[in-house]
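Changelog excerpt

This revision adds worked examples to the README so contributors can see how folded entries look when concatenated. The first example is reproduced verbatim below.
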Amino acid sequence: MVPADELVGAVAFSSMIVRPGDTAVAIGVGDLPVLANSLIINAMQSAAIASIAEHLENGETTIETSIALEFHGGIAIGGELRTSANCTEVNGREITFICEAYEGERLVASAVIKRTAVERVSFLARTAAQSIKSSTTS
């Protein structure tokens, strides 16, 4: 991974128009026809990943390790979700992002997301080995 001072301050954005299939009702996580909160989180994660993608070494990626978030309101079908992610801290391999989600000027969600840089092949190998071990002990 590149030095921390090259990551801190990295910013990226994502956006989407809310479609009927994106609502809490459609995906079964609520009974209101508003954008499902899980898709707001996905958009924030997408922005976080994009903000540092060019700064990772070949074969390196990041995995989510924690998220602390607050929802401030919903977005109806046809509304536009815009998210931003700003890399604010690097502690070893742990990378912290401040994320915000807006509809127009209205803040609809905010979060602190932590992701950890990992070597892709090693991580996948470990995950596969753990899955095999879990399935044989069940």
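The second example, added in the same revision:
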Amino acid sequence: MNSGVHMLRRVAFMACLLASAAPAWAGDTPIYQPVPDWVKQAPAPDPGKLPTPRPQILIFDQQQRVEDGRLSSIRTARQGRSAS
């Protein structure tokens, strides 16, 4: 009878694990669309405060929004120009 209780616990545990596993239904191809209204452009740095030599990438900005169970992500980068 004791082994029956252990077997029942194992079955219940496995059922919970299987019930909690859910696939992610994300697409494998990114969707490119115009920039949405909720995206705010990152401010440009003050050129007088940049170090010498200037960095290759000045700003790397990532903004995300979750709405109606959907994740939207925007990534932008501004390149700097190296001083000659």
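Reviewer comment on example two: The mean pLDDT is 78. The first strand starts at residue 57 and ends at 67.
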